[in-house]
From TrEMBL, chains A, B:
Organism whose genome encodes this protein: Populus alba (White poplar)
Membrane topology reported for the UniProt record: Multi-pass membrane protein
Region (Disordered): 467-498
GO biological process, alphabetically ordered: malate transport; monoatomic ion transmembrane transport
Record field: transmembrane: 98-117, 124-145, 151-170, 177-197, 209-231
InterPro entries named in the record: ALMT
Classification via Pfam families: ALMT (PF11744)
Biased composition (Polar residues): 472-492
Keywords noted in UniProt: Ion channel, Ion transport, Membrane, Transmembrane, Transmembrane helix, Transport
Superkingdom, natural source: Eukaryota
Protein name according to UniProt: Aluminum-activated malate transporter 10-like
Primary location group: membrane
Gene Ontology cellular component annotations, sorted alphabetically: membrane
Keyword Thylakoid: no
Length: 498, 498
């Protein structure tokens, strides 16, 4: 559209100039010059567009340099295959084996090791299976005479292609063998269509499958040996990152709500990006599922065994998402125009802030548990902290309730309440009370996350945190003194509050 | 896993039998028989698994017969291509042109017309562009002598493959040209690697591109002419369906909450599936985005023009999702153990039910607007209805507030309140009040949906609903009598309530 507009405006401008050109006869305003100016404008627009595009690409590269490394790896693998086949004499040109090796590398090389292995397996299995089937069909067809040959081949292609296409609609097949089904159809049709005789076909199939295996092995080796990106590790990191984002948004939202006086300095204020971190959690389902699927295929890497329970991460993801939905509700409640009066906010702010910071401490501790692959010694304590903060909040709501019924209050207090009762109405308290009850809801959802993480810790046999550290923590709890340990700030923060 | 368990139990059973076999020497318990039984068990397990799989596949087919039709279409297109090339003499076998036609059909044939067109364009453009570039590189390389030839080709493959791979990380490229970039890399490497001389290459490229164009044209024709599935229509239907689900969940949730006495008959009760309809809305973002992308490429079909504003559907989807988040919060509030006392629930039930049914009427009317592509004449009225119901609800909350402060009440009422004031506390009212405030929040989010749908109606130039119908509706509003029109039940329901 922008392009078209540019052209149109260029035309208009040319017409205007055309009117003017009758006055002056200097060659600069002649048709050649006009076309030149028009082209210049067009080029400038194009250059600007390309520049913007390159800028964006640069940002993506700077943000995640591993993407750039992946591209260089892909380029390298392809160059190796290409040069090997280029420098060796190729008798059949593009139609020969070179093609299959190059094609395999282009199609199979993926960002993560798991994805590459998955595609490789799909390609090898799909090709082999289809090759054998097509071989059988070809043999039967060639026996049945020239008249029936095309009939048998046509019918078999139709049946198998339809069936394989349909299998791609079945979720369990789609998740794992989508590419394999495609390759199956492709290979089967190619072999069935080929005019080769059966004996020649056999030699060809052997060559082709070995070429594909060489291509896939090259891809797997390159992805695994040069700066490998493991789907499992990515899923692991994504889960940790999402937890941190969740904790950040939760704490930030509540802090922002109770900071209407602008007490926080501008530099301390949470940027929108941090507050809206939970949105990433809302949208990460598809990524998590595909990662978990790929991770199953990866060999032991880093701190993960081959049979690491990756499926459990999906459960953790689901519980985080359920928590993020509530934070979304919390956020909309903070954005609403209907605000509680300042003095009620002040009254509630301490308890609410305590619940939100304790809750986010629990989430951060869970993130640490996953990050370090060690059972946390302080998580039970932190959960208890959170529960007691929730209890305090509930009591505070109760006391608000008594504020609303002046009969009881008049007996106990006298001066202040008279003014208060005349102003406090349920509608005024409501925004804060809703915020509070959402916080309570969120804390119960956090307990679900705790459960799923504990399951993960049990199934994956996480080790206990170092015993001495645990003892030290216990000692700190008993003495209730601020700790000087810097490496465990999160736990300590919670302890200080206790 | 299930498979493995089966095997183990088979083994155990064999050992037990083995112990018993020392007593009786009948041949039925001999090792052959044991292996036979074990194999039988294994086979039974396998057959059961296959049976389950086929059952699942059958269900998928029955649920959406168009999937089956798509598979038959794919099979047909492939059979046509295969047979054409099978019956014509093929001089080069699989390596020749047949391969490219078959491959094109397998890879390009997609479920929707838009997706097929998108892949076809990607394939043709990617191949052509890469072909010309590779041709140039080849020419330069062949001029520079045998020594530099592999160097130039290797460097160009490395650079272009890396760049093209990187471009696939850029969201705007990923969304539209992902497949094209892949094909670009593939074609470029293949042509660069090929040992052909430049003049032969030209003839080959011409043949190949024309084969690919024939293949893509066949695919596009088959998808468009035989029971076409349009991405645009799918997106349109998905949006309508999601709206209906949203309306159903909203109404169902609130009805269930206020129906603790089991007044609804079992047959009237909303099945869980309906209540959880909003979950579909939460997860439909990716589908909507790809559909909108494909729909842009589709020609005018059915009631949609070529330039139908498909992007606006994404905005509608986003506003629906925001509404679904609140319904999620509503649902968790209904599931919570913390329930309000029965008499408060009864007091609030009418207003809440009115808000929820009016809200869902608005959503249903919006769904109808989209479904019929006609501006609704009653939507303003329905939105007003909803707003007034929300106002009533707010008043009801206010009156609850006065119930809580007995001082005022003791003056006006006497008998009942004494008992009431002693029991009502803020904490007890809270669950219902939170539900009510969520309903208010949802109704404001519904107004966002109304706005996005109105934008769609303006941009896509929806027609007004037939004038006579509008007049009739207006008359009904004035007379407030139940209408006998059956084709417009939804509007009428709302009118009856007015």
């Amino acid at each position: 559209m922008a392009h078209q507009e540019k052209e149109t405006s260029g035309l208009e401008w040319r017409i205007t100039l055309g009117d003017g050109s009758s006055k002056s006869l200097v060659p600069e305003t002649g048709p050649v010059s006009r076309i030149w100016m028009w082209l210049k404008g067009l080029m400038a627009g194009l250059v600007l567009k390309v520049w913007k595009f390159l800028n964006k690409a640069w940002d993506i590269g700077v943000e995640d340099p591993r993407k750039v490394i992946h591209c260089l790896k892909a380029g390298m693998a392809l160059t190796v295959v290409s040069l090997v086949y280029f420098t060796r004499p190729l008798y059949e040109g593009v139609g020969g084996n070179a093609m299959w090796a190059v094609m395999t590398v282009v199609v199979v090389f993926e960002n993560t090791v798991g994805a590459t292995i998955s595609k490789s397996l799909n390609r090898v299995i799909g090709t082999t299976l289809a090759g054998f089937l097509a071989f059988g069909v070809h043999w039967v067809a060639s026996l049945s005479g020239q008249k029936f040959e095309p009939l048998i081949i046509g019918a078999s292609v139709f049946l198998l292609a339809s069936a394989a296409t349909f299998s791609r609609f079945i979720p369990s097949v789609k998740a794992r063998f989508d590419y394999g089904a495609l390759i199956f159809i492709l290979t089967f049709s190619l072999v069935a269509v080929s005019g080769y005789r059966v004996d020649k076909l056999f030699a060809l199939a052997h060559q082709r499958i070995s070429t594909i295996i060489i291509g896939t092995c090259l891809c797997i080796l390159v992805t695994m040996l040069i700066c490998p990106i493991w789907a499992g590790q990515e899923l692991h990191a994504l889960t940790c990152r999402n937890m941190d984002k969740l904790a950040g948004s939760l704490e930030g939202c509540v802090e922002e709500y109770f900071d209407n006086n602008g007490e926080l300095e501008d530099s301390d204020k949470h940027p929108d990006k941090k507050l809206l971190g939970y949105k990433c959690v809302l949208n990460s389902k598809t990524t998590e599922e595909s990662m978990a699927n790929f991770a199953r295929l990866e060999p032991a890497h880093g701190r993960f065994n081959f049979k690491h329970p990756w499926q459990q991460y999906l459960k953790i993801g689901a519980s985080m998402r359920s928590c993020a939905y509530s934070i979304e509700a919390l956020n909309s409640c903070i954005d609403s125009e209907n605000q509680a009066p300042e003095f009620i906010k002040k009254r509630m702010s301490n308890v609410c802030l305590k619940v939100s910071s304790n809750s986010s401490c629990v989430i951060k501790e869970l993130a640490k548990t996953i990050k370090t692959l060690k059972k946390s010694s302080s998580i039970d304590f932190l959960v208890e902290e959170m529960s007691s903060a929730v209890q305090d909040l509930q009591n505070e709501i109760k006391s608000l309730s008594s504020l609303l019924s002046p009969a009881e209050l008049l007996l106990s207090e006298s001066k202040e309440t008279e003014k208060t009762t005349s102003t406090i109405h349920l509608l005024e308290v409501l925004p804060v009370v809703i915020l509070a009850s959402l916080l309570i809801d969120i804390s119960s959802r956090i307990q679900d996350i705790v459960k799923t993480v504990e399951e993960l810790a049990n199934v994956a046999e996480f080790k206990e945190e170092a015993d001495d550290k645990a003892k030290q923590n216990q000692a700190n709890i008993n003495r209730i003194v601020p700790s000087q340990q810097n490496d465990d700030q999160q736990t300590m923060k919670a302890l200080e509050r206790a």
